[in-house]
Specification:
The complex is a heterodimer of chains A (438) and B (301). By secondary structure, chain A is of the alpha/beta class. Chain A has 17 helices and 14 strands. Helix content of chain A is 41%, strand content 17%. The longest helix of chain A has 16 residues, at 32-47. Chain B is an alpha/beta fold. Chain B has a single domain (7-111, 126-289), classed as Alpha-Beta Barrel (TIM Barrel), CATH 3.20.20. Chain B contains twelve helices and nine strands. Chain B has a nine-stranded parallel β-sheet. In chain B, α6 packs parallel to α7 (154-163), α10 packs parallel to α12 (263-289) and α11 (251-259) packs antiparallel against α12 (263-289). Classes of the chains: A alpha/beta (438), B alpha/beta (301).
Chain lengths: 438, 301
């Protein structure tokens, strides 16, 4: 398949772990040998399929994970927007989100590497849940770090992790969200690095994580590419995905990055002839406002790609929400899974070079997107994914005639938040939630 | 005049065995920090590391994390930090210990701002030079960056070389073989030997990893100082006896600051603690050259 070939070419040219000016390995020295060991294992097992690693991974993703997921034509949305709208149903992956693609890949890799223990951070709890499931499935002890605020707002996922036998450690520091959970997991890893693998949950962190997580998630875009050509006979005009750290985003976009009129991205050597242009939209959480309060160190949003500036956080040079002094801001989103002040370095690079269009949708439009999909299509999306659907509503005219939206996860975990936030607002797409308790 | 190019190396070699102390600048205020640094200097510190607080200190344990939070809550800024260093007159050379993002952002004038969602944000240009220039101007002798491994350090090294500052690298218990050789070839000032895996924080004993690391480093002719977990004079003695040229103590001093009822009490206790640690280090050096039977009883803190 051409995308596989292109991916191999890119791997050969990208061995230093940077994407343009972004990426790298900014971590304490104690972790560097572990990163080198991981890089070596990633190259052998993931890139070269040593010992049939990738064959086992794909088989487990099929039988345990439920892949491939459907690409579904959304009939009523297509009618509403007067164009062809397709939904990539990552909400149907085992566990209810795309996160398992990466979690299972990394836990299996840790097993091949002979590691004895798995640790992970989680924001919304989707990655923690996926890691706990993968660890139970592959019989590995597992500890999850989760910010106290997120523990309180994502209870169902805390229960699921514990059901799967994982230990959940609430992190009290700071605002008790994903940023603090990552800090604490890195501290654990620096202490236990010789026998522990840290399953980073997004395309963030030091090399090789951004590349490796993207490769595990790239199955999303690979499937879309085949499915859309089969169903619509051509590539889409636009692909829309939400972006927090960016793992579903990069997973969805990766296969389409070369589909670009700009020769910088289109790889003429692939023998496919001229490229059709596929526009890529990364939709971030606009929260309640895009303005930041420097004096309080608070950003009422998580719109890193649209409003962030370059800096180093959690092991990589990337775009960040930070003060002029370089202190990291407390981000905000109605969706815990997007609530992060950083973003993947490759996504920063693709935005900087113009290949990916950054966009943001505020809390209200995301909630409307949630209700609209629930009522029009019978699919309750995660609040994260609802941002992509909010963008579709607001900017449908810019997206062309054939649009694919990635529904990165299902919304069961968000029901309480949605009810609470809906009650506070007058939302056009929402049902009357006051009658729910009667 | 010293025979060494580096103030830091001179301090360790000439005051052997060396005591290196760390506190977080701005905890609880920059004014208090000035008094605390002077107390550590009087107590016999040969080098003093000042932490410039960063909001995500991934290499720190809870003690220093809490100090950093207090310093940030008190409004500590890089410029305030440099003004403090401008004002300090200590016998011990001063180093700054901070995270890479703080160095990159210094002097970047462009504030993050909301932009039209259809356009990428304007590019700021992070650069290490303004920070290094200001550090040299303020009279700092070196920089330690816990999240900057040798692989990513070239821009900062070049800037430090141009301004006569040492860039101190950390050697972890996991640093071996080729990596160790590479890092040791870059060392300037001293090698910061991390006593154990994990984060900073006072501990009750000296780890076996310390002895292993010092053994691995014995063939390299650079000063070696051990930190991460050192809190008492007896630890200092044991570490120097194991072959280190200096001990680095941070969390134990930060705890004194956190626990003291008044800044004056903290000043007295910091000075006394520095003396205890320096005495311990000397005891370790003495026991290398005397019969172990003659070793004096350890002093009570």
């Amino acid at each position: 398949m051409s995308t596989e070939r292109e991916r191999d070419d890119e791997r050969r040219s990208n061995r230093t772990g940077t994407f343009g000016d972004y990426g790298g390995q900014y971590v304490p020295e104690a972790l560097m040998p572990a990163l080198q060991e991981l890089e070596d294992a990633y190259e052998r097992y993931v890139l070269e399929n040593e010992d049939g690693f990738m064959d086992e991974f794909r088989e487990r993703m099929r039988d345990f994970g439920g892949r491939p997921t459907p690409l579904q034509r959304a009939d009523r949305l297509s009618e509403r927007y007067d164009r062809e709208i397709y939904l990539k149903r990552e909400d149907l992956v085992h566990g209810g989100a795309h996160k398992l693609n990466n979690a299972l890949g990394q836990v299996l890799l840790a097993k091949y590497m002979g590691k004895e223990r798995i640790i992970a951070e989680t924001g919304a709890g989707q990655h923690g849940t996926a890691t706990a499931m993968a660890a139970a499935h592959l019989d590995m002890p597992c500890e999850i770090y989760m910010g106290r605020t997120d523990v309180n707002r994502q209870r169902p996922n805390v229960y699921r992790m514990r059901m799967n036998g994982a230990e959940v450690n609430p992190v009290e520091a700071g605002s008790g969200t994903l940023k603090e959970a990552i800090n604490e997991t890195m501290r654990d890893w620096a202490t236990t690095v010789e026998r522990t693998h840290y399953v980073i949950g997004s395309v963030v962190g030091p090399h090789p994580f951004p590349q490796m997580v993207r490769d595990f998630q790239a199955v999303i875009g690979d499937e879309i590419r085949d499915q859309i050509q089969e169903k619509a006979g051509r590539l889409p005009d636009s692909v829309v995905a939400c972006a927090g750290g960016g793992s579903n985003t990069m997973g969805t976009f990766h296969a389409f990055v070369p589909d670009c009129a700009n020769p910088r991205f289109a790889d003429g050597s692939s023998g496919d002839g001229p490229r059709e242009q596929v526009d890529l939209y990364a939709v971030e959480a606009g929260g309640s406002s895009l303005e930041i309060d420097e004096s309080e160190g608070v950003a009422p949003n998580s719109a890193t790609l649209s409003t962030g500036t370059d800096g180093v956080l959690h092991g990589a040079m990337t775009k960040l929400l930070q003060s002029t002094d370089g202190q990291i801001m407390e981000s905000h989103s109605v969706s815990a899974g997007l609530d992060y002040a950083g973003v993947g370095p490759e996504l920063s690079h693709l935005v900087e070079t113009g290949r990916v269009t950054p966009a943001s949708v505020d809390d209200e439009d995301a909630l409307n997107g949630f209700h609209r999909l629930s009522r029009l299509e019978g699919i309750i999306p995660a609040l994260e994914s609802s941002h992509a659907l909010g963008y579709l509503e607001k900017h449908t005219d810019e997206l062309g005639d054939l649009v694919v939206v990635n529904v990165s996860g299902r919304g069961d975990k968000d029901l309480e938040t949605v009810l609470e936030e809906t009650e506070k607002r007058d939302l056009e797409a929402a049902p009357d939630v006051e009658v729910f308790d009667q | 005049m010293s025979e060494y190019d580096s103030d830091i190396e001179a301090a360790i070699r000439e005051d052997h065995p060396a005591l290196i102390t760390y506190i977080t600048a701005g905890d609880p205020s920059l004014e208090d920090t000035k008094a605390y640094v002077e107390a550590l200097d009087r107590g016999g510190s040969d080098l003093i590391e000042l932490g410039l607080p960063f909001s995500e200190p991934i290499a720190e344990g809870q003690t220093i994390q809490a100090a950093i939070n207090r310093a940030l809550a008190a409004g500590t800024t890089p410029e305030g930090f440099f003004e403090l260093v401008d004002d300090l007159e200590t016998e011990a050379p001063l180093l700054v210990m901070t995270y890479y993002n703080m160095i990159l952002q210094y002097g970047v004038s462009e504030a993050p701002r909301a932009s039209d969602s259809d356009a990428a944000s304007p590019r700021n240009e992070p650069d290490v030079r303004p920070f290094v220039e200001r550090a040299a101007e303020a009279g700092l002798s070196g920089i330690i960056v816990p999240d900057l491994p040798a692989e990513e350090a070239e821009p900062l090294r070049a800037a430090c070389d141009d301004h006569g500052l040492d860039l101190v690298f950390i050697i972890a218990p996991t640093t071996e073989g080729e990596r160790l050789e590479t890092i040791m070839s870059h060392v300037s000032g001293f090698a910061y030997v991390q006593a154990r895996l994990g984060t900073t924080g006072a501990r009750a004993n000296v780890s076996g990893a310390t002895h292993d690391s010092l053994a691995r480093l014995s063939e390299y002719d650079v000063p070696k100082a051990v930190g991460f977990g050192v809190s008492e004079g007896d630890h200092a003695a044991e570490i120097i006896e194991a072959g280190a040229d200096g001990v680095i103590v941070g969390s134990a001093l930060v705890e004194i600051i956190a626990d003291a009822d008044t800044p004056e009490a903290a000043v007295d206790r910091l000075e006394a603690k520095a003396r205890e640690l320096k005495r311990g280090a000397r005891r370790g050096a003495d026991s290398i050259t005397v019969d172990p039977e003659d070793t004096p009883e350890p002093e009570q803190p």
